[in-house]
Design brief:
Elements: H1 5-12, H2 22-32, H3 38-45, H4 49-59, H5 73-80, H6 82-97, H7 109-130, H8 137-146, H9 149-157, H10 159-172, H11 176-183, H12 188-196, H13 203-211, H14 229-244, H15 263-269, H16 273-279, H17 283-293
Helix pairs in contact: 2-3, 2-6, 3-5, 4-6, 5-6, 6-8, 7-8, 7-14, 7-17, 8-13, 8-14, 9-10, 9-12, 10-11, 12-13, 13-14, 14-15
The structure holds fe (ii) ion (2 copies).
Length: about 300
């Protein structure tokens, strides 16, 4: 999927598109290195005092439900595991990267993050349901949490375009993605692709972030015989995002219409329409869980 020329031209003019902080990159590289021990990782994390404090705060929140107090980063790593620490570090870094500038009256940052947390939690529920050993539910959670990051970049750096799209969504009743395609010739998924191109993210995150509105496009084997885990994760994120706009979901980006569900996504994860319907029963439980993750952006 090539990046549209219109967007390339616009992005070229943005000289300060954010990159990951050095400490976040170091920590994430260490986590991806199978030789790293929890003590090694803790010593790197501890060098970033602000990040360590936030990790501890989140690790001790109701979200992770650990029955005792976690007193230091090493304990947090041992108890929560490398994957969870990866999610926490990456999401904290991304949230810090884009402080709320409140540029748009119609783009409610709190509601946006709430949508992302719900999408992450629903992705995790779906990943647990499909019982594919190669899919780790934490990867699906992390992808859901960050899937719409391109919208934040648009709000901050492509404000006029963002405003046009929001206006059009409200008037036309079309989804955000559809409106972007009609008006701009590029979408927030294209923006995400540009943003994360130098972040060195694993495919399990890259695919859902870039293909969560077009999971069928992610497939390298067009016969759909050999579907990889990152491709499955893109479909999981697509379905979770779709569910975020269902009638059962109160007060979640209600101004924008539900994006289209690509039927191929259900086939890719091996789900029936009935199983999709049943997922809606899990929404109340997901909503109960979101409040504690809010400490990320308060
Ligand atoms: Fe999206
Ligand atoms: Fe979304």
């Amino acid at each position: 999927m090539p990046i549209p020329i219109e967007l390339k031209e616009k992005i070229k003019r943005i000289s300060n598109l954010p990159t990951l902080t050095k400490s976040a990159s170091t920590i994430m590289n260490r986590i991806n290195n199978p030789k790293t021990s929890s003590r090694d990782l803790a010593s790197v994390v501890n060098q970033d005092v602000a990040l360590s404090a936030k990790i501890l705060r989140l690790a001790n929140s109701a979200f992770y439900g650990i029955p005792r107090t976690i007193n230091n980063v090493n304990e947090a790593i041992v108890i929560l595991g490398f994957k969870v620490i990866y999610t926490i570090v990456l999401s904290l870094t991304v949230f810090d990267m884009f402080p709320d500038s409140s540029l748009s009256l119609h783009f409610d940052r709190k509601k946006f993050w709430k949508h992302c947390v719900i999408c992450g939690l629903l992705s995790k529920v779906i990943a647990q349901k499909i019982k594919n050993r190669k899919i780790e539910p934490e990867d699906s959670f992390c992808a859901g949490l960050l899937h719409d990051i391109g919208k934040i970049v648009m709000e901050q750096y492509l404000h006029d375009d963002m405003h046009k799209v929001i206006d059009y969504c409200l008037k036309s009743g079309k989804s955000f993605y559809q409106s972007e395609k009609e008006l701009l010739g590029y979408t927030h998924a294209d923006v995400t692709k540009l943003l994360i191109s130098r972040w060195n993210l694993p495919d399990m995150l890259y695919y859902p972030l870039v293909f969560h509105h077009s999971p069928e496009q992610s497939l390298s084997d067009k016969t759909k015989q050999n579907i990889s885990s990152p491709e499955i994760n893109a479909s999981i994120c697509h379905i979770a995002d779709y569910l975020c706009y269902s009638d059962e979901m109160p007060d979640n980006e209600p101004d924008f219409a539900q994006p289209r569900l690509e039927p191929a996504s259900l086939r890719i994860i091996g789900f029936t329409e009935r199983q999709l319907e049943l997922l809606k029963d899990r929404i109340p439980e997901v909503l109960e869980n979101i409040e504690s993750y809010n400490i990320l952006f308060t």
